[in-house]
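Late entry, iron/sulfur cluster complex.
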Amino acid sequence: MWSQLRSLGTVFKHLFTRVETVQYPEEMPYLAPRYRGRIVLTRDPDGDERCVACNLCAVACPVDCIALQKTEREDGRWYPEFFRINFSRCIMCGMCEEACPTYAIQLTPDFELCEYDRNNMVYEKEHLLIDGVGKYPDYSFWHVAGKAIDGKDKGEAQKEKPPVDVRSNLP
Amino acid sequence: MAKISVDGVEFDAKEGENLLQAVLSAQLELPYFCWHPSLGSVGACRQCAVIQYADEEDTQGRLIMACMTPVADGMRVSLEAAHARDFRASVIEWLMENHPHDCPVCEEGGECHLQDMTVMSGHTARRYRGNKRTFENQYLGPFLNHEMNRCITCYRCVRYYQDYAGGTDLQAFGSRARMYFGREEAGVLENPFSGNLVEVCPTGVFTDKPFSKTYTRKWDLQSAPSVCAGCAVGCNTIPSERYGRLKRVHNRYNGSVNGYFLCDRGRYGFGYVNDDARIHKVGVRAADGVFDVISAEEGEEKLGDIVRDGAIGIGSPRASLESNLALKVLVGEENFCTGLSSAEDALMRLILDVYECGGARIPTLAQVEEADAVLILGEDVLNTAPRVALAVRQSVRNESLEMAEQAGIPLWQEAGVRSHGRESASPLLVASLLPTELDELATHTCNGAPESLAAAGFAIAHRLNSAYAAGEELDGPTQSFVDDAAAVLSRAKRPLVISGTSLRNDGLIKAAANIAWALKAQGCDAGLLLTAAEANSCGVGMLGGGVDLDTALRAAAAGQALVVLENDVTRRADPDLVASAFSGSTAVAVLDSLENATTESASLVLPAATFAESTGTFVNYEGRAQRFFEVFAATGETAPAWRWLSKAGARAGRNDMHWQHVDQVVEAVASHPRLVGVADAAPNGGHRNAAGNRVPRAPHRYSGRTAMNAGVNIHEPKTQVDEETPLSYSMEGAMGDQPAALTSYVWSPGWNSNQSVFKFQQEVGGAMAGGDPGVRMLDAEPAQVDFAQRYRPLQTPIGAEGDGRFKLLPTHSIFGSEELSGRSQPIAERGPQAFIVLGAAEAARLQVAEGMGVRCPELDATFAVRVEESLAEGLAVVAMGLGGLGDEVPSERVTLEPDPEFVPPTTLIARG
Ligand code: SF4
Ligand code: SF4
Ligand code: SF4
Ligand code: SF4
Ligand code: FES
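Prediction complete; structure with ligand written out below:
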């Protein structure tokens, strides 16, 4: 008897507390930028594909849902010939983002990934690649890496000396 | 055996061995860079520092380089002492100061010894804030990428390339912090063993260029133990696949065969597996001459129909023993031919006869390296059995090794050994048709036509033991070569005679046998190495056929049905004979993997799996049966040839070849008295380790499994179950305790690079744990034969006949002469333009000079001229496999005429 009254009391009290329920989807909740939802591939500040097809995200992925193949552009940049994420397997753990040495792969706050057809959960590069830099506006891997590409020769990356003249003996 | 104490724990070690090797053999972890088991120690990198204590009282000790310190009994060292650890951490930090931020775009990443050693030394954060030194790279040809920024100056590359492989066009330049390892100017790296730099360089300076184009990390590669299909040496390899394409071939250590190194034909000659000209469907020629695609069942039925009333079967030295046996059983011994050309078949029989006499030891490659005098009779091994040439190169060092030993210099003390024995080399005698690349090492050389080389060989045997008959009179230089050879060889303790089939001359093989036998009779441990041309020449020779190729083709021309197994017969027989066989035969069924001239003429084509998509056995030059395993499943209707043949047999109502499983075929092969050993070449499909596990084909971090097929179908396919082998098609299973023949990749915790192979060896640089893979089947006790009388010289010298026509003789090119590797892009790029070698007099008569062209109307071919002073009149040497030539030269003399329209070869290879 006492416990039933207490329950009634608790319920009654809740009539006056603040409502936590969000009327999704009419009302969208705020999700911080670091929220881990749908994965995107971002671009360099200069607009080129960031991903260098290093495969680190794929190997970091605990459910093995990333597959890609490296290829190379005329200008020397490595990039993925295809890049596929199977979102029906992805657990939004963010390990890929942590592993990525170029900040190419990023998780976004978009979690609305439901599909009637499971096949639509497979995202290819054309679905993943966005036009912006995502959370890291400034970073450009190729300006740090030692490998030369067109427009950034040996010695022109950050913190590099000009190439050694092997034939000179001067200090 | 010495006892050493390492961090207070006692270990056994070999007295005098270097401490680094001892420590690694004891399965302890110590970082190193510049030491390599085959290259010895030079103490250049300072990474292997440990503390040595004078005695039990000594608590301070002193820092030593483990790789430069010989093991002594009672030695006390510490790997873990703080001082040693700090020192090693500092060394790696210095090495990494200028290291580029490249790992994500570095082909070495994930199998980088530098990464491994950095982690092992505990260097995790860069403190250096200065600017990094950079270098320009060089274009090095179709095999290798160059990225000098990643160099750590360990000197391994030049030590391998110059000292071990004898290359001259890779050097160390500059000084201090500006050391540069490359060519004097950009250009193709010429040494035919250059590909090993990929594995020798501990960093990503030299990486595999074709592999890089569609690069895959090591952890994503599906691999299986395999055997190189490039020649009869049978080097052990690890081919790797991803997304249905063969991506690369790496060395698989076998202490008795290839050790740590492959040749470039073996490493880069697999491209045909991915070729667009691959046959994946069954085709039958319709009335209009075009191929119609039919189903696999219809194909089996058709093949069954063709063989039902008897057919001629042509086997192949590039197909597995299993497939050859299946064809032999299907058509019957009397209708089966080995697929070797008639000339080569006769030589193969001769070689087996020689070996079965048991008169001399058949050396492994490791034993070739130990020979203290080598005579090469006629065979241009660098171009026909390349890895043998690299082994011969090492044998020349034995003299200086012996000198070092007498001077008390440990043999691993590379710089000491090399400078002490600078000028001294063990004798190498090269008798060849044309000058060879090994001549630079040779103490004695002689050139001549095959017949005169054979005569020289018989004369050497006669000199060694007069019971062996001498041949004809020799000219002055040849006679002095003979005198020197006899003198040098009889002084040796482990002399070795090398010859082979490539000049298609039986006298050479007989003479080589006589020399080896005569030496053996003098009481030394003589070796006799006779090479054949292709990966399974020896195997198919041991299997044997009832008819030779020409007879088989004549039977087909007379109206017999023909089944051709993985063989482009147009390369091996007279074109007219082949044409008449194809037109006269009631039906020509061809099983092959690539379109070629023979499949073009077939009435039925069945897609056969390559070495990468099937399991089978090759027998190498020493009679060693070695199993190669399926790396990945074949696409389309492609199946191992033996399976097509067995199914066709079943359709034709045969009940003796109902093979479902490769092990059943292996058993059938092993029922052949000569080939009993084949069954033990590798564990059969039922093998599991003690815990019941298979050996995985994929590393445990194989990625992308739930996405790689999702583009086609979101429903993940069931992992393919391997019904045939003890390997699994996934990362499931256990790697580490498998028999060596099942090593599908090398990896050990903390050792992601191929350096981890020492974890699978009995001792560092020794045999694989459990014994080196393969079973030798030709070792024979000396037979009751009169060795001296068995092979007698019988040669008619061929001179010019004065009619202005030329006798053609064959020569070979490591790149381009072998059929399948020659169709792989990087090899084709390195292959020379079709060439002909003429004597100086003949060139003058034809009014051509080096670089000009001559035409041969009979062959309908044009060649670039090379002039060789020594070549006799009436002779011309052509490179096999190039410019439309096959594996045989025509037996009739041909005419040659200058070709004014000839365009000289362009030496410029497109950059990229
Ligand atoms: S880790 Fe980053 S750069 Fe590397 S493959 Fe993945 S997305 Fe591309
Ligand atoms: S050599 Fe090794 S450490 Fe250097 S960039 Fe390549 S993978 Fe990284
Ligand atoms: S290129 Fe490679 S092998 Fe040569 S010194 Fe540099 S790191 Fe060593
Ligand atoms: S020597 Fe022969 S078997 Fe060895 S890698 Fe070269 S081609 Fe292959
Ligand atoms: S491995 Fe000992 S100094 Fe390099």
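Chain B touches chain A through 47 residues (CB under 8 Å). Will revisit in the morning.
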